[in-house]
């Protein structure tokens, strides 16, 4: 992506986000990089939205919607596996298929880093990226993450295992 990044805003989930959350959580192509291996019902996701505290200290995670300049939700940023003692969290970003390649992931990443530094006062963020995901690896490198340990056979697509790389950003 060349030029200026799109304006995005990270915000708490709302009941109106049920459709995008349903599409993303049930996108089987994303299951290989996460821990999901079963589809979620609309009821379960509605219940999750209704009962999430949006407090990283209470839940050890926080999920934020990525909203574009028109107020449309275009993706999700997750901060999970939060350690209040060590002040680090794992970062995940998913942008809807139709919105990919437009700079939303980079813009959301920058805001997530700023939020993690300024509001949560984290010491570091980390990501685990499939070694074959060149686009994601390049994005994180360009945004200051350092490439670290290669994790052998870390991810499975249920047919094959894939190596992943642990990448860190010190805040």
How would you describe this protein?
By secondary structure, the chain is of the alpha+beta class. It is 27% helix and 35% strand. It contains five helices and seven strands. It has a seven-stranded mixed beta sheet, sandwiched between helices. Strand 2 (62-68) and strand 3 (73-83) form a beta hairpin. It is globular, with a radius of gyration of 16 Å.
Alpha-carbon distance between the termini? 25 Å
- What series of H and E elements makes up the topology? EHHHEEEHEHEE
Count of separate DSSP helical elements? 5
**Overall 3D form:** globular
Fraction of residues in H or I helices: 25-40%
| Strand ordering within the main sheet | 1-2-3-4-5-7-6
The share of residues in extended strands comes to: 25-35%
Class per helix and strand makeup: alpha+beta
Extended strand count = 7
Low-confidence runs: none
Secondary structure elements and pairings:
Elements: E1 8-12, H1 18-25, H2 42-51, H3 56-59, E2 62-68, E3 73-83, E4 88-95, H4 104-118, E5 124-130, H5 134-142, E6 146-156, E7 161-170
Helix pairs in contact: 1-2
Brief digest:
The chain is an alpha+beta fold. The chain is 27% helix and 35% strand.
């Amino acid at each position: 992506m060349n030029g200026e990044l799109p304006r995005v805003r990270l915000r708490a989930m709302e009941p109106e986000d049920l459709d995008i959350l349903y599409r993303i959580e049930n996108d089987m192509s994303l299951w290989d990089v996460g821990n999901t291996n079963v589809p979620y019902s609309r009821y379960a996701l509605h219940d999750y939205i209704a009962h999430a505290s949006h407090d990283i200290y209470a839940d050890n995670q926080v999920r934020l919607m990525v909203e574009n300049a028109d107020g449309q939700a275009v993706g999700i940023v997750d901060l999970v596996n939060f350690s209040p003692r060590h002040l680090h969290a794992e970062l995940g970003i998913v942008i809807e298929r139709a919105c990919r390649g437009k700079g939303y992931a980079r813009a959301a990443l920058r805001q997530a880093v700023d939020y993690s530094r300024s509001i949560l006062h984290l010491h570091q963020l980390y990501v685990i990226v499939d070694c074959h995901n060149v686009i994601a690896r390049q994005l994180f490198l360009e945004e200051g993450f350092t490439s670290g340990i290669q994790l052998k056979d870390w991810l499975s697509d249920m047919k094959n295992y894939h190596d992943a790389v642990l990448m860190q950003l010190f805040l």
